[in-house]
Amino acid sequence: MQRNLNASTWIILGLSFAVCGMAAAVFVTPSKADRNAAAGNVSRLDPPLRRAFSDGGEFEAKREPGGGDWLAAHDEPGQTFERWVNSNPNIPGAGRTKLYVLPIGEFEKGIAPDLEKLKQYTAAYYHPMPVEMLPVIADEEVPAKERVNGMSAKKQWKSTDILRWLPKKLPADGYAMIAVTMTDLYPDEKWNFVFGQASTKDRVGVFSFARYHPAWTNRPAEAGTEALVLRRAAKVLTHEMGHMFGIRHCIYYECNMNGANHLDEADSTPVHLCPVCLRKLHRAARFDPAERYGKLLEFYEANGMKAEEEWVGKRIEAIKGAR
Ligand SMILES: [Zn+2]
Ligand SMILES: [Zn+2]
Fold it and tell me: Which residues surround ligand 1, an ion (CB under 5 A)?
């Protein structure tokens, strides 16, 4: 969910109709050899790390896109582990070690995802980096231009105004901060909406969960809606935090760092990081992979995410060499 805006470092995430008129890209699923090469040479690593950054059969190669999907419209060059290292990415340090989440505006119970759970999930995902949820900023204190969208008849905030303000709100010990809101966003007058926008240079971003609940289109909640809203919000938050470490969209595996053009496509990508993206995050955040998966396992168990719980359990066994 990334696109250059005015050739600046700002990126726009999740588009409503932006694929129209863009040249179609041709994407071919990378071979096993290409996927292994993208994760870099692992032969000199300790066995548990070597296994953590290798595909033991738990991962799926990136599928070829359908017509409206991200890779059908965007020529993504891919970012191997080596290319990421050579890009001299931002990494935590020099007193900037915490990840912050800043809720802005109202979070209506039953419609909004549970903020405490989002914090717990982000903390497991980015273990051992500390994650803090900042106090909610009231609606009227958000310094953004407002409009009512002609199609939805709902209030929107101008995301670029929020992005200009966010660096001032980033605490001195903050490595990165993502603002989250239930108010819909738009980047400029010509656009219908955006799901979010970020500045990787300033390591801040803003994302709206407004369209994640069926209430957006006046449909009632069903069994499973709360879990779906949490899964969507958790994925977008961890995906965007990934960009804050200079990790670009993944084209090697089905992965949380895949670009997504629409909600169905975003729903179809897994919550986990592939070996290539995991190795980048490991270099930036320095964790024990089995320990990190253990934290995620606890979250999946506590929140009834059965498929994820099983997957992560298999990965822990694979890293420990138990299989
Ligand atoms: Zn993205
Ligand atoms: Zn990946």
Answer: 1-2
Catalytic choice (222, 240, 301, 317): 240
> What is the tens place of the pLDDT at every residue in 191-222?
999 988 999 889 999 999 999 999 999 999 99
pLDDT digits (tens, 9 = 90+) for 34-91: 999 999 999 999 999 999 999 999 999 999 999 899 999 899 999 999 999 999 998 9
- pLDDT tens-digit readout, 13-44: 543 333 333 456 789 999 999 999 999 999 99
Active site residue 240: yes
Nearest ligand to the CA atom of 238: 1
Say which amino acid occupies 98: K
Residue with tokens 């006046």: 218
CB contact at 8 A, 284 and 92: yes
**pTM recorded for the entire structure:** 0.91
Residue 217 alpha carbon to ligand 2 centre in Å:
32
Q: Residue 96 C-alpha to ligand 2 middle, in angstroms?
A: 25
User: Does residue 252 contact residue 34 with C-beta atoms inside 8 Å?
Assistant: yes
What whole-number distance in Å separates Cα of residue 226 and Cα of residue 244? 27
CA of 52 to the centre of ligand 1 (A): 23
Q: Do residues 65 and 28 touch, judged by C-beta distance below 8 A?
A: no
Helices 306-320 and 289-302: crossing angle in degrees, nearest 10, is: 160
Spacing, Cα 25 to ligand 2 middle (Å): 19
